[in-house]
Design brief:
Largest sheet: 5 strands, antiparallel
Structural class: alpha+beta
Order of helices and strands: HHHHHEEHHHHHHEEEH
Shape: elongated
Number of strands: 5
Distance between the termini: 53 Å
Strand order of the largest sheet: 2-1-5-4-3
Strand content: 5-15%
Length: about 250
């Protein structure tokens, strides 16, 4: 937009914002004044682009308009920071996994490889759950857990119906796993919870973990899954023997 006349203060004039957003000047004035007007997500996005709002500023604009903010965009191609890698390593000998909202594996510690049977070809938790024979064979309750895992993934995908990455994971897995395709076709929806993960390791026997999933606040759509030995299950002692690392609190 070409500059017109001298400006006393920097930034766009009200009329210029309205033009860039494709709305009427009067309507935009009423929006600024907080009047009772109808506003759509599309219009708010247009205003956000005109003002070059950041993700938090855009979310705040939605809240001011009385709408739920859209889900924050993922950090495509972002590198795993040294701090996150250190946290994963510090959790050893407990397993720890860093994943995104599509269940793509971003990083895991050596304990997760040893205890759960991940190998270098594994790139997505859901795909591994259905296609890695060693991984699924170690899960004591695989058959009963599988529908809940798929239902939770469907619920998460429903928050981003136009996101092609969810479709890509579903299409890739459906092509190689009839079991997944059959469960997915049920259209069940579930909610992820703080689950208990039970595996039978060929060397250490039964290992039972409490699973806690934490959001990485500066990486939207990234999650850290931490596995802690279930008290009273004997898992801690067997885990130490398996990894030969004392089970102490991480630094």
């Amino acid at each position: 937009m070409a500059a017109v006349g001298k400006r006393r203060t920097p930034g766009l004039r009200r009329e210029e914002v309205a033009v860039l957003a494709g709305v009427g000047v009067s309507w935009y004035t009423w929006l600024e004044q907080g009047r009772e007007i109808n506003v759509s997500a599309e219009v708010l996005d247009a205003i956000g682009r005109a003002l070059r709002l950041t993700e938090p500023e855009r979310a705040h604009l939605y809240l001011l308009a009385g709408l739920n903010p859209p889900r924050a965009a993922g950090v495509g191609g972002a590198e795993v920071t040294p701090q996150l890698r250190h946290l994963l390593d510090a959790w050893t000998p407990r397993p720890a996994v860093l994943r995104d909202r599509y269940l793509n594996l971003l990083s895991i510690n050596e304990a997760a490889r040893t205890v759960f049977g991940y190998h270098d070809a594994d790139h997505n938790c859901l795909i591994t759950f259905f296609t890695n024979a060693r991984y699924r064979g170690m899960h004591i309750h695989w058959a009963s857990v599988a529908p809940a895992v798929v239902a939770a993934f469907r619920a998460d995908a429903a928050h981003s119906p136009d996101d092609p990455e969810f479709d890509r994971v579903v299409d890739e897995l459906s092509a190689v796993s009839p079991e997944f395709a059959e469960i997915w076709a049920r259209h069940d929806v579930g909610v992820p919870d703080q689950a208990v993960k039970a595996v039978h390791h060929p060397e250490a026997g039964d290992l039972i973990f409490d699973t806690t999933t934490l959001a990485v606040v500066d990486r939207p759509g990234w999650y850290l899954e931490l596995y802690n030995p279930r008290p009273g299950s004997g898992t801690g002692d067997r885990l130490e023997q398996l990894t030969r690392t004392p089970l102490t609190a991480p630094a």
